[in-house]
Amino acid sequence: MKRFVFHTHFPLGIFCLFTILIVEALLSYPVQCADPFIAADITITENVLADAVEPIGANLGSIAGGTNFAVNNHVWNSGFEPMMLRKFIRIDRAGSNWFEWDQEGGPGYWNLAWTGLFNGATVRFYRIVDAGGQPLSYNSSSDMSRIDGAHHVVFLGESTIPMPGPGFADGGFIANDDRDGDESNDMQRAYITNSTLGLRFGDYAYIKLKTNSMGPETSPPDLRSNFRGLKSLFSATSGEWQPALVPHPQPIPAAFNEPGETCLEVTLPNAESVRLGQWVYHPYDEGEGQWYSQLHPGAAYRVSVWLRQEGLGNNGQARFSFSGAYDSVSQQDYWNVTSGWQQFTYDFIAPVYPTSGSHIAHRLEFTGPGKVWIDNFVLYRYDEKHEFRPFTPHEISFDKMMATVPQEGKKPAMRFYGPIYHESSIEAMFTNYGNPKYRVAWNAGAGKAPITTIAQVMYWAYKSGDRPATRMVQ
C-alpha cells in the first residue's frame, strides 16, 4: 500500500483549509501510481518516510515555454477532457442567497468575463472560527488579514450557482456593466440555491465548474468577436471545422486505455482538406526560438492517436504531418479511419536541427465533409530510455536535474508547476490527461491542460531514487 505524508508550514487557518481540500480530494479518488493502469490506495499516516528535506530545490515547468519537456509528450491537451474553472475567493459582501468578492477583479475578472460564466458551478463554503466556534471579527469586518483568535476551520456547506430558469433568466452568475448599453442591470454577484448558510465577511468560497462547452455570451459584448472557444485547442489550422467536446461514441475497445470523460468531435462542413495542428517548434534563433524548441536530431519518435469517423471524404483517409522545416518527416501514407474506434501510430526519426524558417506545427489532416472523433493524441520519444511510452520523465528535464543533485543520500525538493497552479480537476490530475482550464481573456477559450499531472510527477519523483529516503520530495 502506498503512503504519502504531507508536511507544510502555513498560518493555522490556511493550513487547515488547505488540508481539508486536499484530503477530501485524495480520499475520494483511486490514485494512479507507477503503473498507470493499477490503482493505488492512499493512506495518510504519521509515519514520516523522508524528513529534514532540503527546502531549496527546483521548479519543474515545461523547460521551453511552447514545447513541453517536463514529461514525454509534445501534444498539448492530448486527452480532450472537459474544461475546468476553479476559483478560491474570500467573501466581501453576502446576503441569504448571494455573495460578492473584490479580489482578482471580482466576478467580472477585470472586465474580461460576463454574466453566465459560472452558471451551474458548485460552491463549497468554509469559515475560520475561534476556539468556541464563533466567527472572527476581522476588525469589525474591515480587514481580512486580522485573524485574531483564529483556531480552526469549519465547513459551512455546499450549494450551486443556478442555471438560467425561473427567477434567474440569465442564470445566477451576474457580471454585467454598461457595455451592454443598459446601466440598470449592472451587478457583480453570484447567487446560490442554498439560502441557509448565513454567509458573512471573510468566509471562503471554493467555486468549481466542469463543462464541455462555453459560449461567447460569457465574454463581454466588446470582446465577443475575439472569442475562440474550443477552437483554441488547435492553434495552427486550415479549412473550416467546428469542434465539440462530447462523450465517446460507443463501443469503446478494451485496448483504449484512459479514454476519460470526453473526446473531440470535429465537424467538417466542406469538401476540402482540413489540418488541425499546434505551433510547438521553431528553428533556434534569438527571437521565437527562445520560447519554442526542436525535436532531437536522430531520435526515434512515435505519434499515436485514437480516431473514428462518419462520412469523411477521401474514403476516411487521414494522416499526421508537420509544417515548415519538419515537413520532410511528415507521414507519406495514410491511415484508413472507419466508423469504429481505432488506434493509429506513425514512427519517424527526427531530422537535423532546422536553421531557417518560422514556426513549425504538428498536425492531423482529414478531408471533409463529415465528422471525425479524436482522442489521446500524443507525440513522444519512442526509445528504451523513455520506456517506449508517453508521459515518462523527459531526458531534457530529468537528466539535467539528476546531474545537479547529490548522487547519494537525500535530495532537494522539486516543485512541479503543473499540478500546483492549474485548475484541472483532482480526478483528472490522477490520470495522464488533465483537464484544460477555461481561459478567461480578451480571446477567451480553452486553455492548456497541465504540463504534468499528479500521476506523472509521482512517477517522476519515483524515478529519482531507489527508496523514499533517496527520492526527491514533491
Describe the structure.
There is one protein chain. With 474 residues, this protein is mainly beta. It has 3 domains: 1-65 and 217-228 and 393-474, no CATH class; 84-211, Elongation Factor Tu (Ef-tu), domain 3 (Beta Barrel); 234-390, Jelly Rolls, CATH 2.60.120. The protein is built from 6 helices and 28 strands.
Brief overview:
With 474 residues, the chain is mainly beta.
Uncertain segments are: 1-34
Can you tell me the number of structural domains? 3
* CA(first)-CA(last) distance: 19 Å
Q: Report the average pLDDT across residues.
A: 90
Radius of gyration over C-alpha positions, nearest whole angstrom: 24 Å
* Largest beta sheet: strand ordering: 16-19-24-21-22
The shape is globular
Largest sheet: 5 strands, antiparallel
Strand content: 25-35%
Helix-residue proportion: under 10%
SSE class = mainly beta
Give the number of DSSP strands: 28
Number of helices: 6
Task: Please describe the structure with a list of short key phrases separated by commas or semicolons.
single chain; 474 residues; mainly beta; Elongation Factor Tu (Ef-tu), domain 3; Jelly Rolls; five-stranded antiparallel sheet; globular
Helix and strand arrangement:
Layout: E1 2-3, H1 12-27, E2 31-32, E3 39-40, E4 42-43, E5 58-60, E6 63-64, E7 67-68, E8 83-90, E9 93-95, E10 98-100, E11 122-129, H2 138-141, E12 152-160, E13 173-176, E14 187-191, E15 204-211, E16 236-238, E17 242-246, E18 263-268, E19 273-281, E20 300-310, E21 317-322, E22 335-336, E23 342-349, E24 360-367, E25 370-381, H3 395-402, E26 414-416, H4 417-421, H5 426-429, E27 438-439, E28 445-446, H6 454-462
Parallel strand pairs: 1-4, 5-26
Antiparallel strand pairs: 2-3, 6-7, 8-15, 9-10, 10-14, 11-12, 11-15, 13-14, 16-19, 17-18, 18-25, 19-24, 20-23, 20-25, 21-22, 21-24, 27-28
